[in-house]
Design goal:
Blueprint (H helix, E strand, L loop, with lengths): L1 E4 L5 E7 L4 E5 L10 H7 L4 E5 L14 H13 L5 E6 L1 H12 L6 E5 L15 H11 L3 H13 L3 H13 L7 H14 L3 H4 L6 E6 L4 H13 L4 E5 L6 H4 L1 H16 L1
Parallel strand pairs: 3-4, 3-5, 5-6, 6-7, 7-8
Antiparallel strand pairs: 1-2, 2-4
Helix pairs in contact: 1-11, 2-3, 4-5, 4-7, 5-6, 5-7
């Protein structure tokens, strides 16, 4: 376990395993880093894999967290790790990774960004945040499964049947139920950040943009927008995969990360 302190005095926590060039993983929403267990296990024989428990999803810290507060935790963890560091961000964790690159570009050897839901136009929470408002009402009514169903159907834009199943599973899970309000906090934090493509255009750190060909179309559109402002970025498409390839195809994801890391660090 890696434990250190952020500038504001809050404790930073991360799972720490393996030896070699460092890979710092920023997990997606509704998680604490454990969803990347399989990928971490595959990378650990040749890499030091540090999986940050993102501040937005820490139930022991006051929230909600801003993106900048999350970045402070990322940079605090990075200062404790031997360089070079490959930053890997998944979903909203990839947006935090982008903001970390903007804030401290010289700290990272490169970054793998797996389908970051960057705002490129309309808010993720819909006009006036109406998706988030409906999700908050469901949480207040004691229905976290319904809240997640609203989020997955209307923000992630997965089919209604998939959103329904995810909501039922979450409602029955003692680990996931308490994370649902944090997921909505996360969505609102991304919307408050707004369109940041101009800021990302200044990133000169090597970046690999990762996406699945079965993911919702809007995620590919967001990768396209990033590719236009990061002309040196590489693009890799995971065939037959969607937004959860880290779970469904961990060997493919690990191999992609390891290949990129090897080219960066030799």
């Amino acid at each position: 376990m890696l434990i250190t302190t952020a500038p504001d005095g809050t404790e930073v926590r991360a799972m720490d395993e393996g030896r070699g060039p460092a890979v710092l993983v920023l997990h997606p929403g509704l998680d604490d880093g454990r969803s990347w267990d399989k990928v971490a296990t595959l990378l650990a024989p040749r890499h030091r894999v540090v999986r940050l428990h993102r501040r937005q999803y820490r139930q022991d810290l006051p929230g909600p967290a801003t993106i900048q507060q999350e970045v402070e935790h990322v940079l605090a963890a990075a200062r404790e790790i031997d360089t070079p560091i490959l930053l890997v961000g998944h979903s909203s964790g990839a947006v935090v990774a982008l903001e970390s690159l903007v804030t401290a570009p010289g700290m990272f050897a490169g970054a793998v960004l797996y389908e970051p839901p960057v705002v490129i136009g309309a808010p993720l929470g819909g006009p006036g945040g109406e998706i988030n408002i409906r999700a908050r009402r469901a949480i207040a009514a004691g229905r976290p499964g319904r809240a997640l169903r609203i989020f997955i159907r209307d923000t992630v834009r997965l089919p209604a049947w998939m959103a329904f199943l995810a909501g039922v599973f979450t409602a029955l899970s003692p680990r996931l139920r308490p994370l649902v309000p944090h997921q909505i906090d996360d969505n609102e934090a991304l919307d408050r950040l707004g369109v940041r493509l101009d800021a990302y255009a200044g990133i000169d750190t090597p970046v690999l943009l990762l996406g699945g060909d079965r993911s919702p179309a809007h995620l590919s559109e967001r990768l396209d927008a990033l590719a236009r402002v990061l002309p040196g970025a590489e693009r890799v498409v995971l065939r037959g995969q969607g937004h959860t390839a880290h779970a469904s195809a961990p060997a493919q994801v690990a191999a992609t990360i390891e290949s990129f890391a090897t080219r960066l660090t030799g």
